[in-house]
Amino acid sequence: MKTKKTIGRIDKLDLPELGLEKVQAKIDTGAYTSAIHCSKIHIEKKDGREFLVYTISGKRLGHGMKAKKFKTADFKLKRIKSSNGQVQERYVVKTKIKIFNKIYNTEFSLSDRSHMKNPILLGRKLLSGRFVVDVTEENLSYQYHQNGR
């Protein structure tokens, strides 16, 4: 049987392909899909191909971080139920996330989380079969990383 790591209700995570480190995330077993705060989300066409362009705000990522603009041809449009129960169409991108010094492939829907405390939300699709959530704990992966494990 596979051992599951315990993760707290919030943690600081790395997204190595996006060049982001120690970004605060809320662990949310009520959400299926993970989400990341983005703005200026739009499609650009070049040579007959579509590219998704989006910006991740620096001030939402932590002290001293600058906004980063990304462009990818690897995306899809999905219908996702928001926290208030409404179904929205959102763009979804694939990337890697580092938790407890292990890299996982995952998907993030791009959404405006400016009114939320945490720029990243980790949902059940990533958590299922890998983690158990202890809501009394915080930053367990970050502490694991800091202790050099």
Considering the chains and any ligands shown, give keywords for the structure:
149 residues, mainly beta, eight-stranded mixed beta sheet, three-stranded antiparallel beta sheet
Task: Tell me what you see in this structure.
The chain is mostly beta strands. It is 7% helix and 57% strand. The protein contains two helices and eleven strands. The chain has helices at residues 124-127, 140-146, and strands at residues 5-15, 20-27, 34-37, 39-46, 49-56, 68-72, 75-81, 87-99, 102-111, 120-122, 131-138. The strands form two sheets. An eight-stranded mixed beta sheet has the order 7-8-9-3-10-2-1-11. The chain has a three-stranded antiparallel beta sheet with strand order 4-5-6, with no helix packed on it. The radius of gyration is 15 Å and the shape is globular. The two termini are 22 Å apart. The mean pLDDT is 89.
Strand content: over 45%
The number of distinct helices, counting runs of at least 4 residues, comes to 2
What structural class do the secondary elements suggest?
Answer: mainly beta
**Strand segment tally:** 11
Specify the overall morphology. globular
Average pLDDT across residues?
89
Order of helices and strands: EEEEEEEEEEHEH
